[in-house]
C-alpha cells in the first residue's frame, strides 16, 4: 500500500543546456542534452519516494516512446505503476526545455498530447482511500476533483500544487487540505496585492488546514489561520532550476507523512528543492533524506 498517491501531469521532457538564450532565427550548439521525466505531481512522487516514502501514480500513459520512457522512469525510482492505464495510438504529453547558464533560468515549450482523460477505476479509488495523502496539480481536473472527494471522505489528506490558473480550479481548491500555490497563482486567483493578503484570503475562501505560498528565490510564507510566518531558501549553487517547485511539493508530502508540522515541512522542502538545483535533472538530482538532514544541520536547522 502506498502512503502517497498522485494524479496530475506526467511529461516526457527533452532538456538542452545552453550558454545563453539564442537570437531569433539563428543556430546555437547546446553544451549538453538529455531526456527526463517531468510534470508537477509525477516529479513530486519521485521526490517523495527518494526521501523514503512509498508512492504510486494514478493516470493514463501512451504506449509511444514517451509513455514507455515515463513508465520505466517511475520504475527506476521505485514509484508504483500498477495504477497506470496504458492506451495505444495516442501522443504523450511532451516538452522541450532550454536551461540557460548565464541567467540560471529555464524556458519550456510543451505539447499536451492527445491522451483521453483519466476515469478512475475501482482499484484507483481504493488506493486513494488507503493512502495517507493525495497529491494533485490541476491537470486531469475531473478525476482529481473526484479523487479529492474520495480522499476527504476517507481521511486522506489532499495536497494541491497550485501552479496553473486552470479553468475550474475552485472545484479542486474546495477539497484541499494543504494548499501550496505559487505567488503568481495566489495573487491571480484572489486579486490581492500581496502574498500575505492572498494567503489569508485563500484560507478564508476555502478553509484548508494550511496555505503555503512559494516565492522562488525569496523562500515563501505559511499561514495556518493564526499568523503569517516566513520560511527561507537555503544556499545552493544553481545548475538546473527546472522542476524545483515540483520537488518542493513532493518533499512537503513526504514531510507530512513523516509526521512533521507544516512549518517544519516548509524548511525540509526548501532544503530538498535547493539541493535538487545543484544537479541537472528534476528527478535524478533529488537528494536522499540523510543528505537533506545533514544539509539542514550545516545551515543551522535541525529536523
Q: What is the annotated CATH architecture?
A: 3-Layer(aba) Sandwich
Describe the main β-sheet briefly.
8 strands, mixed
Uncertain runs are none
Indicate the CATH class. Alpha Beta
Helix run count: 10
What's this, in brief?
It contains 10 helices and 14 strands.
General description of the model:
This protein is of the alpha/beta class and 303 residues long. It has a single domain, classed as Ribokinase (UDP-N-acetylmuramoyl-L-alanine:D-glutamate ligase, 3-Layer(aba) Sandwich). Helix content is 37%, strand content 23%. It is built from ten helices and 14 strands. It has an eight-stranded mixed β-sheet with strand order 4-1-9-10-11-12-13-14, sandwiched between helices. Strands 3-2-7-8 form a four-stranded mixed β-sheet. Strand 7 and strand 8 form a beta hairpin. It is globular and about 55 Å long. The relative contact order is 0.15. The mean pLDDT is 95.
Topology:
Layout lengths: L3 E4 L3 E8 L13 E7 L1 H11 L4 E3 L1 E4 L2 H13 L6 E4 L6 E7 L4 E7 L10 H9 L2 E4 L4 H13 L3 E6 L6 H5 L4 E4 L1 H8 L4 H12 L3 E5 L5 E4 L4 E4 L12 H15 L3 H15 L12 H10 L5
Parallel strand pairs: 1-4, 1-9, 2-7, 5-6, 9-10, 10-11, 11-12
Antiparallel strand pairs: 2-3, 7-8, 12-13, 13-14
Amino acid at each position: 500500500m502506498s502512503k502517497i498517491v498522485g494524479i496530475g501531469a506526467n511529461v516526457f521532457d527533452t532538456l538542452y543546456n545552453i550558454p545563453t538564450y539564442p537570437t531569433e532565427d539563428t543556430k546555437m550548439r547546446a553544451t549538453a542534452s538529455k531526456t527526463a521525466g517531468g510534470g508537477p505531481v509525477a516529479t513530486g512522487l519521485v521526490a517523495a519516494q527518494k526521501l523514503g516514502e512509498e508512492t504510486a501514480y494514478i493516470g493514463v500513459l501512451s504506449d509511444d516512446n514517451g509513455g514507455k520512457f515515463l513508465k520505466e522512469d517511475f520504475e527506476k525510482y521505485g514509484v508504483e505503476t500498477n495504477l497506470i492505464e496504458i492506451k495505444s495510438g495516442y501522443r504523450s504529453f511532451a516538452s522541450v526545455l532550454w536551461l540557460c547558464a548565464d541567467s540560471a533560468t529555464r524556458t519550456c515549450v510543451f505539447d499536451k498530447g492527445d491522451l483521453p482523460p483519466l476515469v478512475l477505476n475501482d482499484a484507483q479509488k481504493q488506493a486513494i482511500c488507503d493512502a495517507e495523502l493525495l497529491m494533485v496539480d490541476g491537470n486531469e481536473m475531473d478525476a482529481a476533483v473526484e479523487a479529492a472527494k474520495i480522499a476527504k471522505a476517507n481521511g486522506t489528506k489532499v495536497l494541491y500544487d497550485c501552479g496553473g490558473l486552470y479553468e475550474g480550479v475552485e472545484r479542486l481548491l474546495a477539497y484541499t487540505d494543504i494548499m501550496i500555490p505559487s505567488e503568481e497563482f495566489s495573487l491571480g486567483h484572489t486579486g490581492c496585492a500581496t502574498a500575505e493578503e492572498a494567503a489569508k484570503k485563500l484560507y478564508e475562501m476555502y478553509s484548508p488546514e494550511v496555505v503555503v505560498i512559494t516565492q522562488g528565490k525569496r523562500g515563501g510564507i505559511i499561514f495556518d489561520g493564526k499568523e503569517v510566518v516566513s520560511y527561507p531558501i537555503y544556499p545552493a549553487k544553481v545548475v538546473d532550476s527546472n522542476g524545483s517547485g515540483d520537488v518542493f511539493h513532493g518533499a512537503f508530502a513526504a514531510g507530512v507523512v513523516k509526521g512533521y508540522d507544516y512549518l517544519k515541512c516548509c524548511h525540509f522542502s526548501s532544503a530538498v528543492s535547493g539541493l535538487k538545483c545543484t544537479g541537472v535533472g528534476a528527478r535524478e538530482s533529488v537528494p536522499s533524506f540523510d543528505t537533506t538532514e545533514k544539509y539542514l544541520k550545516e545551515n543551522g536547522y535541525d529536523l
